[in-house]
Amino acid sequence: MSTRLACVVFDADRPRFVADFWAELLGWTVTIDRCDQVDVAAPDPDGLELALTFRPEARAKDCKNRMHLDLASRSLDHQRAQVERALALGARHVDIGQGTVPWVVLADPEGNEFCVLEPREEYVDTGAVAAIVIDTHDPVRLAEFWSTASGWPIAYGGARMAGLRSATGLGAWLEFVQTPDVKSDRNRLRLDLLSFPTDDPAAEVARLRAAGATRLAADGTPGVLLADPETNEFCLHRPASDYSTI
Q1: pTM of this prediction?
Q2: Domains recognised in the chain with CATH numbers
Protein backbone atom coordinates (compact mmCIF):
# COMPACT_ATOMS: atom_id res chain seq x y z
CA MET A 1 0.00 0.00 0.00
CA SER A 2 1.16 3.55 -0.65
CA THR A 3 0.10 7.09 -1.37
CA ARG A 4 1.35 9.57 -3.92
CA LEU A 5 1.84 13.32 -4.02
CA ALA A 6 -1.13 14.95 -5.73
CA CYS A 7 -0.63 18.72 -5.60
CA VAL A 8 0.64 21.77 -3.75
CA VAL A 9 -2.31 23.58 -2.16
CA PHE A 10 -2.38 27.37 -1.66
CA ASP A 11 -4.84 29.04 0.68
CA ALA A 12 -5.88 32.15 -1.24
CA ASP A 13 -8.04 35.19 -0.69
CA ARG A 14 -8.65 35.36 -4.46
CA PRO A 15 -8.06 31.83 -5.79
CA ARG A 16 -8.63 32.52 -9.48
CA PHE A 17 -6.57 35.71 -9.40
CA VAL A 18 -3.50 34.09 -7.85
CA ALA A 19 -3.99 30.94 -9.96
CA ASP A 20 -3.84 33.09 -13.10
CA PHE A 21 -0.57 34.60 -11.86
CA TRP A 22 1.03 31.18 -11.46
CA ALA A 23 -0.38 29.83 -14.71
CA GLU A 24 1.06 32.78 -16.65
CA LEU A 25 4.40 32.65 -14.85
CA LEU A 26 4.93 28.90 -15.30
CA GLY A 27 3.36 28.61 -18.74
CA TRP A 28 0.75 26.22 -17.32
CA THR A 29 -3.02 26.19 -17.76
CA VAL A 30 -6.07 26.41 -15.50
CA THR A 31 -7.62 22.92 -15.55
CA ILE A 32 -10.32 23.30 -12.86
CA ASP A 33 -12.18 26.53 -12.12
CA ARG A 34 -14.80 26.28 -9.37
CA CYS A 35 -15.76 28.56 -6.52
CA ASP A 36 -14.10 26.19 -4.03
CA GLN A 37 -11.06 25.18 -6.08
CA VAL A 38 -8.91 26.38 -8.96
CA ASP A 39 -6.23 24.04 -10.34
CA VAL A 40 -3.23 24.92 -12.46
CA ALA A 41 -1.25 22.16 -14.20
CA ALA A 42 1.57 21.73 -16.69
CA PRO A 43 0.42 21.27 -20.30
CA ASP A 44 2.19 17.90 -20.66
CA PRO A 45 -0.24 15.24 -19.39
CA ASP A 46 2.63 12.74 -19.12
CA GLY A 47 4.88 15.06 -17.13
CA LEU A 48 5.58 14.59 -13.44
CA GLU A 49 5.02 18.20 -12.38
CA LEU A 50 2.68 18.46 -9.41
CA ALA A 51 -0.45 20.53 -9.99
CA LEU A 52 -1.06 23.69 -7.97
CA THR A 53 -4.45 23.95 -6.25
CA PHE A 54 -5.88 27.23 -4.94
CA ARG A 55 -8.62 27.13 -2.30
CA PRO A 56 -10.51 30.08 -0.74
CA GLU A 57 -9.25 31.22 2.65
CA ALA A 58 -9.97 34.62 4.20
CA ARG A 59 -7.30 34.30 6.91
CA ALA A 60 -4.63 36.93 6.35
CA LYS A 61 -0.99 35.96 5.84
CA ASP A 62 1.02 37.20 8.82
CA CYS A 63 4.40 35.45 8.61
CA LYS A 64 6.79 33.80 6.20
CA ASN A 65 5.43 30.60 4.69
CA ARG A 66 7.08 27.35 5.76
CA MET A 67 6.76 26.03 2.21
CA HIS A 68 7.71 27.74 -1.04
CA LEU A 69 8.46 26.99 -4.68
CA ASP A 70 11.86 27.36 -6.33
CA LEU A 71 11.70 28.07 -10.06
CA ALA A 72 14.34 26.76 -12.43
CA SER A 73 16.26 28.80 -15.00
CA ARG A 74 18.33 27.74 -17.99
CA SER A 75 20.78 30.65 -17.96
CA LEU A 76 21.40 33.95 -16.19
CA ASP A 77 19.54 35.71 -18.99
CA HIS A 78 16.61 33.34 -18.51
CA GLN A 79 16.68 33.96 -14.76
CA ARG A 80 16.51 37.73 -15.36
CA ALA A 81 13.67 37.25 -17.83
CA GLN A 82 11.78 35.10 -15.33
CA VAL A 83 12.15 37.76 -12.65
CA GLU A 84 11.03 40.53 -15.00
CA ARG A 85 8.03 38.46 -16.09
CA ALA A 86 7.04 37.74 -12.50
CA LEU A 87 7.26 41.43 -11.58
CA ALA A 88 5.19 42.40 -14.60
CA LEU A 89 2.52 39.88 -13.56
CA GLY A 90 2.26 41.35 -10.06
CA ALA A 91 5.08 39.83 -8.01
CA ARG A 92 7.35 41.94 -5.81
CA HIS A 93 10.81 41.66 -4.30
CA VAL A 94 10.91 40.60 -0.64
CA ASP A 95 13.64 40.47 1.98
CA ILE A 96 13.46 37.42 4.25
CA GLY A 97 17.01 37.83 5.47
CA GLN A 98 18.59 36.10 2.48
CA GLY A 99 21.46 38.58 2.18
CA THR A 100 23.52 38.53 -1.01
CA VAL A 101 22.62 35.35 -2.89
CA PRO A 102 22.57 34.30 -6.56
CA TRP A 103 18.85 33.55 -6.51
CA VAL A 104 16.05 36.14 -6.41
CA VAL A 105 13.40 36.08 -3.68
CA LEU A 106 9.96 37.31 -4.72
CA ALA A 107 6.38 37.11 -3.47
CA ASP A 108 3.28 36.47 -5.54
CA PRO A 109 0.32 38.90 -5.46
CA GLU A 110 -0.90 37.42 -2.16
CA GLY A 111 2.52 37.51 -0.51
CA ASN A 112 3.56 33.87 -0.96
CA GLU A 113 7.34 33.75 -1.19
CA PHE A 114 9.12 31.98 -4.05
CA CYS A 115 12.62 31.96 -5.50
CA VAL A 116 13.87 32.25 -9.06
CA LEU A 117 17.08 30.26 -9.02
CA GLU A 118 20.25 30.81 -10.96
CA PRO A 119 21.08 27.93 -13.36
CA ARG A 120 21.91 24.74 -11.45
CA GLU A 121 22.88 21.40 -12.96
CA GLU A 122 20.66 19.41 -10.61
CA TYR A 123 17.57 21.21 -11.90
CA VAL A 124 18.15 21.03 -15.66
CA ASP A 125 15.39 18.43 -16.20
CA THR A 126 12.82 19.43 -13.59
CA GLY A 127 10.54 21.58 -15.68
CA ALA A 128 9.43 25.04 -14.56
CA VAL A 129 9.39 24.19 -10.85
CA ALA A 130 12.81 23.12 -9.63
CA ALA A 131 11.83 22.26 -6.07
CA ILE A 132 9.12 22.39 -3.44
CA VAL A 133 10.99 23.55 -0.32
CA ILE A 134 9.86 23.00 3.27
CA ASP A 135 11.39 24.64 6.35
CA THR A 136 12.20 22.14 9.10
CA HIS A 137 14.09 21.71 12.35
CA ASP A 138 15.27 18.22 11.32
CA PRO A 139 15.70 17.77 7.54
CA VAL A 140 16.50 14.05 7.67
CA ARG A 141 13.61 13.14 9.97
CA LEU A 142 11.08 15.05 7.88
CA ALA A 143 12.54 13.69 4.64
CA GLU A 144 12.12 10.16 6.01
CA PHE A 145 8.47 10.81 6.79
CA TRP A 146 7.70 12.31 3.38
CA SER A 147 9.60 9.54 1.64
CA THR A 148 7.23 7.10 3.34
CA ALA A 149 4.23 9.26 2.46
CA SER A 150 5.12 9.93 -1.18
CA GLY A 151 7.05 6.84 -2.19
CA TRP A 152 9.91 9.06 -3.36
CA PRO A 153 13.39 7.88 -2.29
CA ILE A 154 15.75 10.10 -0.32
CA ALA A 155 18.42 11.32 -2.75
CA TYR A 156 20.57 13.08 -0.15
CA GLY A 157 20.38 14.06 3.49
CA GLY A 158 22.33 16.04 6.05
CA ALA A 159 21.97 18.27 9.08
CA ARG A 160 21.14 21.34 6.98
CA MET A 161 19.30 19.96 3.98
CA ALA A 162 17.69 16.80 2.60
CA GLY A 163 15.99 16.04 -0.69
CA LEU A 164 13.60 13.57 -2.29
CA ARG A 165 12.86 12.96 -5.93
CA SER A 166 10.63 10.63 -7.85
CA ALA A 167 12.34 7.32 -8.65
CA THR A 168 11.98 8.22 -12.34
CA GLY A 169 14.46 11.07 -11.84
CA LEU A 170 12.03 13.54 -13.40
CA GLY A 171 9.96 16.42 -12.08
CA ALA A 172 10.52 18.79 -9.16
CA TRP A 173 12.52 17.93 -6.06
CA LEU A 174 10.99 17.90 -2.59
CA GLU A 175 13.56 19.56 -0.34
CA PHE A 176 13.81 20.15 3.41
CA VAL A 177 15.95 23.02 4.68
CA GLN A 178 16.97 23.46 8.31
CA THR A 179 15.64 26.59 9.97
CA PRO A 180 15.22 27.67 13.60
CA ASP A 181 11.89 29.35 12.84
CA VAL A 182 8.92 28.15 14.87
CA LYS A 183 5.61 27.28 13.20
CA SER A 184 2.99 29.63 14.63
CA ASP A 185 -0.21 29.05 12.65
CA ARG A 186 -1.77 26.82 10.04
CA ASN A 187 0.31 26.74 6.87
CA ARG A 188 -0.99 28.61 3.85
CA LEU A 189 0.77 26.12 1.55
CA ARG A 190 0.60 22.37 2.00
CA LEU A 191 0.98 19.08 0.15
CA ASP A 192 -1.97 16.84 -0.62
CA LEU A 193 -1.69 13.08 -0.99
CA LEU A 194 -3.83 10.70 -3.02
CA SER A 195 -4.37 7.03 -2.24
CA PHE A 196 -4.38 4.50 -5.06
CA PRO A 197 -7.73 3.03 -6.15
CA THR A 198 -6.83 -0.49 -5.00
CA ASP A 199 -5.66 0.58 -1.54
CA ASP A 200 -7.68 0.92 1.65
CA PRO A 201 -7.64 4.61 2.61
CA ALA A 202 -8.21 3.81 6.30
CA ALA A 203 -5.15 1.57 6.22
CA GLU A 204 -3.21 4.39 4.57
CA VAL A 205 -4.16 6.75 7.39
CA ALA A 206 -2.92 4.15 9.87
CA ARG A 207 0.32 3.73 7.91
CA LEU A 208 0.96 7.47 7.88
CA ARG A 209 0.23 7.71 11.60
CA ALA A 210 2.70 4.90 12.27
CA ALA A 211 5.31 6.90 10.32
CA GLY A 212 4.75 9.94 12.56
CA ALA A 213 1.64 11.72 11.29
CA THR A 214 -1.11 13.02 13.57
CA ARG A 215 -4.76 13.03 12.59
CA LEU A 216 -6.38 16.46 12.97
CA ALA A 217 -9.98 17.41 13.55
CA ALA A 218 -11.98 17.91 10.37
CA ASP A 219 -12.29 21.59 9.45
CA GLY A 220 -14.26 21.41 6.21
CA THR A 221 -11.13 20.75 4.15
CA PRO A 222 -11.74 17.98 1.59
CA GLY A 223 -10.10 14.68 2.49
CA VAL A 224 -8.60 13.46 5.75
CA LEU A 225 -6.64 16.21 7.49
CA LEU A 226 -3.36 15.18 9.10
CA ALA A 227 -0.08 16.77 10.22
CA ASP A 228 3.46 15.55 9.63
CA PRO A 229 5.97 15.14 12.51
CA GLU A 230 6.59 18.92 12.56
CA THR A 231 2.86 19.73 12.53
CA ASN A 232 2.71 20.75 8.85
CA GLU A 233 -0.84 20.07 7.72
CA PHE A 234 -1.61 17.86 4.73
CA CYS A 235 -4.64 16.03 3.36
CA LEU A 236 -5.14 12.49 2.16
CA HIS A 237 -7.69 12.12 -0.63
CA ARG A 238 -9.30 9.17 -2.30
CA PRO A 239 -9.37 8.89 -6.09
CA ALA A 240 -12.13 11.04 -7.54
CA SER A 241 -14.34 8.05 -8.39
CA ASP A 242 -14.48 6.93 -4.73
CA TYR A 243 -16.93 8.97 -2.64
CA SER A 244 -17.35 6.82 0.47
CA THR A 245 -16.12 7.98 3.89
CA ILE A 246 -12.87 6.90 5.50
Answers
A1: 0.92
A2: 3-178 (3.10.180.10)
